[in-house]
Design goal:
Helix content: 55-70%
Radius of gyration: 32 Å
Structural class: alpha+beta
Strand order of the largest sheet: 3-4-2-5
Number of strands: 7
Largest sheet: 4 strands, antiparallel
Distance between the termini: 12 Å
Length: 716
């Protein structure tokens, strides 16, 4: 009979039935994307040495080493704080308040007792952390040098150029570096072009591609199972295809237009020597730069232009779509986002102030009615609630600050992580560490039950467990994998839902600073917090290492920039601890006794000022590491590196195609229905024409869910 309908099963079908997406395949793909890999592409062992984490960049290895050093420092602080803790528990034993007993207490102490049991142990702890900051500064340079020597990457051969004239082409840059200046053979030149619109269109196209595959798979599954087909689904498939084709045309148009350079370019030399010679020739000291500005040519010039040449970031670290944003615009956006972040912290402070005011009124009312036990229970309950509220607000601040930092449009992932760290650390330290002090009445009320230090104790406990739990158990990722993924129909959507989450080293550093700040601020007057902080750092070490190696995607290679920002922020936290301890000691002495206890915080402030303002960075052992003298590649050429990344501007890549995306040949069984049945209702005989290879992109669905016509290549 005459064929009246063509039924083409979906891709991957078996015996005419849609095949369910393969969960094991999605899991294997997810495992291949997560963690750090060694030279054999195997995920690093959780118990492996820290030096292997240098594969992800200096910033990752420095994070874990700094965490280890902080653990040791807080163990020493806890040992020294045991002296103060013993004095506190003995002096406050008659209060019958377990939390308040561990603090310096609401009662005044003799000056000699404050000096011997409180000030001197704290001052030694202060010296430990100042020494730690000097040590971290030294190790940042030495570890950066060791990582650069252990691992050979594209960055060992590459330089970044700024100020490239718009009319300059790749051939001119090759001539400038190879022939005019004899820096050696150039392996690659990649000029940065304006591509933010292209990247936006491409990201939209990828989302539509997955949506199209999922919608088509749902359509085929419903048709195979005999369920009624939604009337608008075929139209939705058609509209998605049309939008994808329109996006392809727009991307092709952007590629066909004359490309607009951003003024930035990346050069990969064939040898590391060529890179070193290039950096030395274009690096000027302050005197040479002044002479250069007066019009005397010292550094090489491209025509009449002096190029700015610096060590290049790794290819995975570059945000190509942001290279077109001028530095002044980035600074303007950064200032705006900082103001917005500060405003969010201010709102949080206002809410916490109202919360504290309501708590104080209720406690006063209960005490006025001689309900002391109820007042104590209420104060402790409010302290726990306040800790939960502060922790929840921090989670909301993290989401807001991440989106604000994306708005800044930084050039590299390292700069993004540094900016994210600055804003998150500011929000964390102010909201979780300092606000409970700023909204309190006076230092005399800090040590009562339900006061500042009682709230701080519960905040420290919550901070020790809650953030690390969610670092390992990503609720959003688990929800996608086990609540949404079982119901998807396409492999592409399943793969997307099983993808590991992103890892942010800026966020990890900010969380570490928050934990350290709580310990340094409240540990001196409540030494038990030193013990809790030491344990919290151990939990952070294990949770972060597990998250990076077994949960999250491998982050781009980062340099030591975030670690330097962390060290600077740590110095200000130490200063805040000095000011707070000065306030505590001066308010705990009897009236009329002026000398003694406050001398030690004063000496500590002088030592902090020396650390901050003496230019230790001028010493060779503490200066920032620059790879302009070493030969860590041992003369190996760039072309000999296996799997080395190159710099590729997105707009220089081929435009994606819906035809290529769906043109995956599958084996399908063509069935011809005999129209001789009752009224042509499809109840006639079926004749199998055999297995044929057909591209799914040739199928065009009609409104009733069946192909309106057989593919042209399969016309009978």
């Amino acid at each position: 009979g005459r064929p009246t309908a063509w039924r083409l099963p979906m891709s991957g079908t078996r015996e005419g039935r849609p095949q369910r997406p393969d969960v094991l395949r999605a899991q294997r793909r997810a495992r291949s994307m997560r963690g750090f890999k060694d030279e054999k592409s195997k995920t690093l062992d959780l118990r492996g040495p820290l030096k292997e984490l240098g594969r992800a960049g200096v910033g990752v290895e420095l994070y874990f080493r700094t965490l280890r050093w902080l653990m040791i420092a807080f163990v020493l602080a806890a040992a020294l704080g045991s002296i103060s803790l013993a004095d506190n528990t003995r002096s406050n034993a008659d209060l019958n308040l377990p939390i308040v007993e561990t603090t310096i207490g609401p009662c005044c102490k003799d000056v000699d007792r404050l000096v011997d049991w409180q000030a001197i142990p704290w001052f030694i702890t202060f010296l430990v952390f100042v020494g730690l900051m000097y040590f971290v500064r030294y190790k940042q340079r030495s570890i950066a040098r060791l990582v650069d020597k252990r691992f050979t990457t594209t960055g060992d051969y590459a330089v970044e150029i700024r100020g490239v004239p718009a009319a300059t082409r790749e051939a001119e840059l090759i001539d400038y570096f190879e022939k005019q200046n004899n820096f050696g053979k150039v392996a690659q030149v990649q000029i940065g072009y304006r591509c933010s619109e292209y990247v936006r269109l491409f990201e939209r196209w990828k989302k539509l591609d997955i949506e199209l595959r999922e919608t088509t798979a749902q359509h085929d599954a419903d048709r195979a199972s005999g369920f009624p087909l939604p009337a608008g689904r075929a139209g939705k498939i058609d509209s998605i295809q049309q939008e994808m084709v329109a996006l392809e045309g727009e991307m092709a148009r952007l590629q066909a237009e004359e490309r607009r350079p951003t003024g930035a370019a990346f050069i990969i030399f064939e040898t590391e020597k060529g890179r070193r010679d290039c950096l030395r020739a274009h690096t000027l000291n302050s005197c040479q730069a002044l002479v250069q500005q007066l019009g005397f040519a010292i550094a090489p010039r491209l025509g009449h232009v002096t190029l700015t040449v610096t060590a290049a970031p790794e290819p995975s670290d570059v945000y190509w779509e942001n290279l077109e944003v001028a530095p002044n615009e980035v600074r303007k956006r950064s200032g705006l986002t900082l103001i917005v972040a500060a405003a969010l912290v201010g709102v949080s402070a206002g809410l916490l102030a109202l919360f504290t005011q309501r708590k104080n009124r209720e406690i006063a009312r209960l005490e006025a009615r001689s309900e002391s036990q109820a007042a104590v229970a209420y104060a402790q309950g409010i302290s726990i609630v306040a800790a939960c509220v502060v922790t929840g607000v921090n989670a909301l601040l993290r989401i807001a600050v991440q989106r604000l930092t994306v708005y800044e449009r930084r050039d590299t992932r390292t700069e993004y992580e540094e900016s994210l760290f600055v804003k998150l650390s500011l929000a964390y330290v102010l909201n979780q560490s300092l606000l409970i002090i700023l909204v309190s009445h006076s230092p005399t009320s800090w040590f009562v039950d339900g006061g500042v230090y009682a709230q701080a104790f519960f905040i420290v406990l919550a901070n020790s467990v809650v953030p690390e739990f969610f670092k390992v158990f990503r609720i959003d990722t688990l929800f996608q994998r086990y609540a949404i993924a079982p119901f998807v129909k396409s492999q592409a959507k399943l793969d997307e839902l099983w993808e590991p989450p992103e890892a942010s080293m800026g966020e990890f550093y900010a969380g570490l600073l928050k934990t350290v700040a709580l310990g340094l601020l409240y540990g001196p007057a409540m030494p038990v917090i030193y013990f809790v902080t030491a344990g919290a750092l151990c939990i952070t070490y294990g949770a972060t290492k597990y998250a990076l190696l077994r949960v999250c995607k491998q982050p781009p290679s980062l340099n030591e920039g975030v670690s330097e920002r962390f060290r600077e922020a740590l110095s200000y936290v130490v200063l805040a601890g000095v000011v707070l301890q000065f306030t505590v000691l001066t308010t705990r002495r009897p009236r009329g006794q002026r000398d003694g206890a406050e001398v030690w915080p004063t000496i500590a402030f002088v030592l902090w000022a020396l650390y901050k303002f003496v230019p230790v960075g001028l010493l060779p052992c503490c200066a920032k590491y620059t790879d302009t003298k070493s030969n860590d590649t041992n003369g190996a050429p760039f072309s000999s590196l296996r799997g080395a990344d190159k710099y590729l501007c997105p707009i220089s890549q081929p435009v994606p195609s819906i035809v290529e995306a769906q043109a995956r040949p599958v084996r399908v069984r063509l069935v011809v229905e005999d129209g001789g049945g009752d009224g042509g209702d499809g109840g006639g005989a079926h004749t199998a024409l055999g297995l044929q290879e057909v591209s799914l992109s040739s199928v065009r669905e009609s409104a009733d869910g069946l192909p309106s016509a057989p593919p042209a290549s399969l016309q009978p």
